[in-house]
Amino acid sequence: MINRLLRKSLPNQFARRAALATMLLAVPFALMVGGAPQAHAQTPDRDIASSDARSAIGLIYHRFGENEYPTTNIRLEQFEAHIAELSKSRYNVVTLSVITQALEANRDLPPRTVALTIDDAFLSVYREAWPRLKAAGLPFTLFVSTQAVDDGIPGYMTWDQIRELQTAGVEIGNHTVSHAHMPTLSNVRNRREVMRAKERLSEELGQAPTLFAYPYGEASNALKDIAKEAGYSAAFGQHSGGISPHGDRYYLPRFPVNESFGGIERFTRVINMLPLHATDVTPDNPNLGAPEMENPPAFGFTLAADVAWDADIACYHSDTGKVAQMERLGPRLELRFDKPFPTGRTRINCTVPTPEGRWRWFGMQYYLAP
Fold first, then answer.
1. SS3 breakdown of the chain: % helix, strand, coil, rounded to 5?
2. How far is CA 122 from CA 48, 52, 198, 227, in A?
3. Nearest CA-CA partner of 365 in 252, 276, 229, 261
4. What is the Cα–Cα distance from 353 to 351, expressed in whole angstroms?
5. Domain end (from 226, 242, 275)
6. Closest-CA residue to 124 (of 168, 80, 76)
7. Cα gap 169→208, rounded to integer Å
8. Residues 211, 305 within the same domain
9. How many domains does the chain have?
10. What are the C-alpha distances in Å from 306 to residues 101, 108, 120, 185?
């Protein structure tokens, strides 16, 4: 990645931004985007149709019909409307591994491919979501945090229930042991969280998971390396955006779905989204607390495929709203912020409408420990 090369010689992030801008203006467009690929990403190509054909949408749910937890819950009437929409023939609903295997093989996916994912293994998955999804014939991927299941905490599934789902074809992924805020832990502790959960899932289910999801979507470059070293083919956050062949394989997006963002109009718009194919994302480290990071960060990305973007492109900061300071540098967009990001999670989302009435979306989540 261009940013990684610059980091070796220019420790200051703003100096790197200036150098990158100079490179973008000096290097021919086609040559620049065909250079060194982003870590864990496919080599960019300029064909938007080819990029779109290898893209998909991921959704993330947590609780079902547990209306006392509105930020992580989806109301059952909302969920039933989602199932009715996804059951239409225009959609191709698959498990996450179908998408990641296609990315690995550089293979096309059917249009409007969607993956349903559920985090944490709450009991309402078994009681409410599973019967409805089974009746509709819709597959899904369940990410399990093992400690809550091992301890028999009320409100969580049991291993017998998880095995029942697995036997019926539900894909099971790793969501760590304790569901901790991983960027606040040591590398030793994080490796233990990932590997011990992998061991428990293998012991209980008879096979090791191939996919990993960061608790709260909180990641870092060190955590990406741990997931890769542990043998996972991909890892997922909780930031919005389409899954693109140009994305970081160890920090892929999933659109969060809850009561506030579960209306059928928004849901239908989301599952018809296309990626805003981005590469050379800076900063590429989602952990703002890393020693080399600056706050506020200088955020930017380069288009990896020819998307028509003009004045209609808009970017949003989750705490301050629409971003006013945006600069175009050929195929690159740079954003600047007046204030440091607050502690906790901050999301940056950029969208642009397509001529066909759909939307392209790229997002990142950054985390700063309190």
1. 35, 25, 45
2. 39, 34, 19, 24
3. 252
4. 7
5. 275
6. 76
7. 15
8. no
9. 2
10. 25, 18, 38, 40
Q: What CATH code is carried by the domain that includes residue 258?
A: 3.20.20.370
**Residue-range definition of the domain harbouring residue 191:** 48-275
Nearest to residue 111, comparing CAs of 242, 238, 236? 242
pLDDT digits (tens, 9 = 90+) for 82-132: 999 999 999 999 999 999 999 999 999 999 999 999 999 999 999 999 999
- pLDDT tens digits, one per residue of 192-233: 999 999 999 999 999 999 999 999 999 999 999 999 999 999
Give the pairing type, strands 73-74 and 63-64.
Answer: parallel
Cα separation, 85 vs 313, whole angstroms: 28
Residues 96 and 6 in one domain: no
Nearby residues of 187 by Cβ (< 8 Å), 6 or more positions away: 222, 226
Task: Round to whole Å and give the CA distance between 190 and 205.
Answer: 22
pTM of the full predicted structure? 0.87
Q: What is the pLDDT of residues 134-190, one digit of tens each?
A: 999 999 999 999 999 999 999 999 999 999 999 999 999 999 999 999 999 999 999
Closest CA to 61 of 252, 262, 270, 219: 262
Burial of 367 (0-12, 13-18, 19+ CB in 10 A): buried
CA atoms of 308 and 146, how far apart (whole Å): 45
C-alpha pair distances (Å), 292 with each of 14, 190, 221, 286: 12, 20, 12, 12
H or E, element range at 368: strand 359-368
* Chain segment 303-312, per-residue pLDDT in tens: 998 777 766 8
Question: Sign of torsion, CA 258 260 261 266?
Answer: positive
Q: Let me know whether 269 and 358 are in one domain.
A: no
